Amino acid sequence: MSEKEGTGLDRLYATVAARRGGDPEQSYTARLYTKGSAKIAQKVGEEAVELAIAAALEDRDEIISESADLLYHLSVLWANADIDPADIYAKLEAREGQSGLAEKAARNNEGEKNNGV
């Protein structure tokens, strides 16, 4: 993929996915992979909280910065789980035109069916 192909998120994903198996002494991303899924998930949670705080404070620059951090860590999480951004795009596309309330209700009903309720 050339630098101009795909979205910024696609390019970010390609970069972090390429770091899997890399030298953890040379790459923060490779180091995250060696720490495993729980640590990667923890970092996603931390960045999400930092973004929420920036949003609550209405700090535009911090919202931008924390959004970038969250997207980076989310890309690492996806790559670690062998999930391509195209999988996420497909899920979003499937939800297009559907009311958010209806979509949430459908997910809640599925959860009840799967839990024997």
From TrEMBL:
- Pathway listed for it? Amino-acid biosynthesis; L-histidine biosynthesis; L-histidine from 5-phospho-alpha-D-ribose 1-diphosphate: step 2/9
* N-terminal signal peptide: none
HAMAP family named among the record's database cross-references? HisE (MF_01020)
Classification via SUPFAM superfamilies: all-alpha NTP pyrophosphatases (SSF101386)
EC identifiers of the protein: 3.6.1.31
Q: Which residues form a coiled coil?
A: none
Q: Hey, which family's this protein in?
A: Belongs to the PRA-PH family.
Q: Which keywords, in A-to-Z order, does the entry hold?
A: Amino-acid biosynthesis, ATP-binding, Cytoplasm, Histidine biosynthesis, Hydrolase, Nucleotide-binding
Q: Which PANTHER family does the entry link to? A: HISTIDINE BIOSYNTHESIS BIFUNCTIONAL PROTEIN, HISTIDINE BIOSYNTHESIS BIFUNCTIONAL PROTEIN HISIE
**Pfam families hit by this protein:** PRA-PH
Protein name per its UniProtKB record: Phosphoribosyl-ATP pyrophosphatase
A GO term, aspect molecular function? phosphoribosyl-ATP diphosphatase activity
Q: What is the lineage of its organism?
A: Bacteria, Pseudomonadati, Pseudomonadota, Alphaproteobacteria, Sneathiellales
Q: Which reaction does it catalyse?
A: 1-(5-phospho-beta-D-ribosyl)-ATP + H2O = 1-(5-phospho-beta-D-ribosyl)-5'-AMP + diphosphate + H(+)
Could you tell me the superkingdom of the organism this chain comes from? Bacteria
Q: Which gene encodes it?
A: hisE
